[in-house]
Amino acid sequence: MNLLKEIEEKNPYQPEFIQAVKEVAEHILPYIEVNPKYKKHKIFDRMAEPERVIIFRVAWLDDAGEIQINRGYRVQMNSAIGPYKGGLRFHPTVNLSILKFLAFEQTLKNSLTGLPMGGAKGGSDFNPKGKSDNEVMRFCQSFMTELYRHIGHNLDVPAGDIGVGKREIAYMFGQYKKIKNEFTGVLTGKGLGWGGSKIRPEATGYGLIYFIQEILKSQEDTLVGKVVAISGSGNVAQYAAEKSIQCGAKVVTLSDSEGFIYDETGITAEKLAWVIELKEVRRGRIKEYLDQYPEAKFFANERPWKVKCDIALPCATENELDDKDAKQLIANGCKYVGEGANMPSTSEAVSLFNKAKVFYVPGKAANAGGVAVSGLEMTQNSLRYSWFSEKVDDRLHLIMKGIHDTCVRYGKQADGHVNYEQGANIGGFVKVADAMIDQGVV
Ligand code: NDP
After folding, report:
1. pLDDT at 1 over 60
2. Ligand 1: distance of its center to the CA of 50 in Å?
3. pTM to 2 decimal places
């Protein structure tokens, strides 16, 4: 039977997972045809099957003393090149399909960084929004009371993702430490005073901009004066905006699940600091930006892709940019799309970008800076040492340049245009595939 059909039949009701596998297969299957050792060892077939999936009950008490029940997950996808590594997501939409797609992408992404990290992802359908700190703490403790037996600093090292920031990482770390009675680097994204790495909060957003800078450099261009549209207003969006502004670009949008704000005059460093305080301390909504900066506009239940821009950076969630959005961006002259989020563009949107020769960079390459600095956090924890910001930032810069070069190596077309998607898929695949061949049929 056709391999993709077989994977589809084996994984019913998992549309996001199938979407991710098909997008990667588009480049890997032709590559395997001309490199038959991968076919003989059934590498792609094996990569599409998680090594292990753990699903568990998370029961906890809310502030009213009511029992609440959520579902917890950890998908340990591939450990061929290192311990499992990948974030935890707390969001009501979390299900097995979404986590398997994220873990599959993570395997290739981690490989691209050049660091020894396997791929995993996990989380829960728990919604931290509107919960008190005590409720979040009780949930995190209950979640870790099961998860602790499946993770470890040499086994599986989770980090944050949507809905899991430094507060949640701290509560989970505290519970892990209490149960295991040991202080190890079992989670990344930790607080700076207790094993965290400098630049980890900034890493995904900064890394995204370093990647875009590499493409611009290849076009003998820079970020100065470029108009940038960003979606989301969480961790990735905030630091993608910060680095864009530092590099002289004009950021004009931010969003959340209720709509987007458009500030034609540009979101300055000062305005962004206000947004970060709004989101991280007051846990407010992006529309409140207008209370502070009334010259901006708010578009309820819309996404920012109708705004004229040179560079679009989707930094919120999967499938948030569809074919209609892609057509609008292309018509408005957008030349660069860098995915801060994981799989934010639908397959149709990606085809349109590639056809129009837009420089489109998929999340597994563009947002790999986050997990790269998580890898550096693991290194620092093993050394029992903490590097200065400059050193971590320099390494992040080098890693993003390395990923760019890998994409060029495997993605350069006959006409000289670089298909970054092809480059990222093949570049990420080769190292994992070779390790799997070396390690035998396991
Ligand atoms: P945060 O929770 O900090 O922020 C998420 C942002 O996206 C919020 O503004 C949120 O709005 C918005 N959002 C979430 N879900 C939806 C939705 N269904 N529709 C519209 N907007 C939505 O998460 P991060 O910034 O950490 O993650 C954002 C993306 O980046 C994700 O795809 C994640 O997998 C990816 N990523 C993150 C990394 C990291 O280091 N944090 C590393 C690599 C990738 P609202 O508050 O209304 O929900």
Report:
1. no
2. 24
3. 0.97
**Burial level of 24, CB count in 10 A (0-12/13-18/19+)?**
buried
What is residue 263's predicted lDDT score, i.e. its pLDDT? Answer: 98
- What total number of domains does the chain contain? 2
**255 near 316, Cβ under 8 Å?**
yes
CATH code of 172's domain: 3.40.50.10860
pLDDT value of residue 347: 96
For residue 160, what are its two tokens? 């944050």
**In this predicted structure, what is the pLDDT of residue 416?**
92
334 in a structural domain: yes
Angle, alpha carbons 393-163-11 (nearest 5°): 105
Q: How far is ligand 1, taken at its centre, from the CA of residue 39, in Å?
A: 36
d(CA 328, CA 333): 9
Residue with the nearest Cα to atom 42 of ligand 1? 370
State whether 179 and 239 are in the same domain. no
Tens digit of each residue's pLDDT (9 = 90 or more) over 89-107: 999 999 999 999 999 999 9
**CB distance 75 to 94 below 8 Å:** no
Ligand 1 atom nearest to 318, measured from its CA: 32
Residues 155 and 260 in one domain: no
Q: What is the pLDDT of residues 353-377, one digit of tens each?
A: 999 999 999 999 999 999 999 999 9
* Mean pLDDT, range 380-399, rounded to an integer: 98
Q: How many beta carbons lie within 10 A of that of residue 210, not counting itself?
A: 23
Strand order in the sheet with 311-314: 297-300, 259-262, 250-256, 227-231, 311-314, 336-338, 359-361
**pLDDT tens profile 201-211:** 999 999 999 99
Mutation test residue for ligand 1: of 317, 343, 361, 396, the one with most atoms within 8 Å of CB: 317
For atom 31 of ligand 1, which residue has the closest CA? 341
Residues marked as catalytic: 121
Last residue of a domain, one of 155, 183, 211: 183
Say if CB 52 and CB 118 are below 8 A apart: no
Instruction: For a ligand 1 pocket test, name from 162, 206, 343 the mutation site with the most ligand atoms within 8 angstroms of its C-beta.
Output: 162
Query: Which of 105, 257, 299, 342, when mutated, tests ligand 1's pocket best, judged by the most ligand atoms within 8 Å of its CB?
Result: 257
Distance between CA 168 and CA 256 in Å, rounded?
A: 20
What is the residue-averaged pLDDT of the chain? 97
Q: Is pLDDT above 70 for 165?
A: yes
Instruction: Give the neighbor-by-neighbor strand order of the sheet with 119-124.
Output: 52-61, 67-78, 119-124, 84-90, 156-159
The ligand 1 site (C-beta within 6 Å) comprises 160-163, 204, 232-237, 256-258, 315-317, 320, 340-342, 367, 370
